[in-house]
Fold this protein.
Amino acid sequence: MRRLRRVKILATLGPASQDRGTIARLIEAGADIFRINMSHATHEGMRERIRVIRELSKHYDREIGVLVDLQGPKLRVGEVAGGGADLVKGQAFTLDDNPAPGDASRVHLPHPEILAALAPGHTLLIDDGKVRLHITRASPSSARAVVDVAGRVSNRKGVSLPDTEIPVSAMTPKDRSDLDAALAEGVDWIAVSFVQRADDIAEVKKIARGRALVLAKIEKPQAIARLDEIMEMADALMVARGDLGVEMPLEKVPGLQKRITRNARRLGKPVVVATQMLESMITSPVPTRAEVSDVATAVFEGADAVMLSAESAAGQYPVEAVATMNRIAEEVESDSVWRAVINAQRGAPEATGADAIAVAARDVAETLDVKAVCAWTLSGSTAMRIARERPGPAILALTPKRATARRLSLVWGVHAVVTKDADDIDDMAKRAGKFANREGFSKPGDRIIIVAGVPFGTPGATNMIRIAFSGSDT
């Protein structure tokens, strides 16, 4: 099950991919980590999928990660008489706290926090931006608006507010219940939706207490405005391009994708590029050329992972979508231009011992043409720091903690193996060579590099680099 690519594939599970056989085929096709979207999953359904993933992980002798995606606040209008009403450009329209069914002149907005936060000039989007209005007058009980883009408003359609910061937590009571259930199942990553500020991530991390790592989905203009502080707080980032493209001009999204990807790499934090990557494969067995280029762009940018949403969750060709993404990534990474682009994006390391060791390991690996960089790691931070440098050889993470190995399934270029901690430096080198051979990265006599922290078992104590020969005691 050794992958021939560095970028990871995050596949969403859903109605089209929830049975054991399909999940197994997704792993064989290239899925490294699975996403369970709590907008559509019950606790029982989540538990069953995690059970199957864990069993298949043992079957394939490969650590497969699980990411649970919290739904976040869902802002919606109320009911509309007759099921819907057509709005005309330029007409006045009111959103209010009256629960009566709406019509072509008004609709109930069952979110007092939104009404309290709206102000004249703010844009309000309904149904993923199909209807666009701007606010002309606002009060705690109602907001008067003018229709800028005509369309139909129907029952319970979603509301987006690109200009408005809403003073609510990113976690609803449902999210708290889902988070507790996910942590009880030992999931590896928690994705937080509707992030507006670093405190939204801090709230989840306080509850998780290290039992899972926390990923911030960047999907709102408010998050872009506070991107630096959110990135510092989060363990990983996701460029959630679907919602970003609704709440911001579409032409800004590609630049934001590059900015987030490069800043995340600078910080040594995994970054996922998501949404509509192979959208046409929901109904077609082959993607469009534009979609192939889109996936390739994310790989060229050095993203840690690329994600499939409806393509693998509800599409007609879930396995084919994963296999296609796998082939695209392998082809891009075999191109000499890819390595030149990846190297050109390198930034200055942070002034820490761990970063200095990671940079040195990369330089030595490329100078000596070693076959693998073997990182002994307890928390995963050593492997993540090495991955930040995007070295030429494979990164083999050796860890005594299965949870660490699963978390590393999201990290660029890392192949994780669970093994007992090293007894001493000689044992560390000998067993690193053994695993490099066993996992297919090297042959006896090939050079490898070992990176570790001494004394062993101390998280974050990366302070040693050693050159060794695979299959040798020296």
Summary: The chain has three domains: 8-72+169-335, 81-160, 353-469. The two ends are 29 Å apart (CA to CA). The first strand starts at residue 8 and ends at 13.
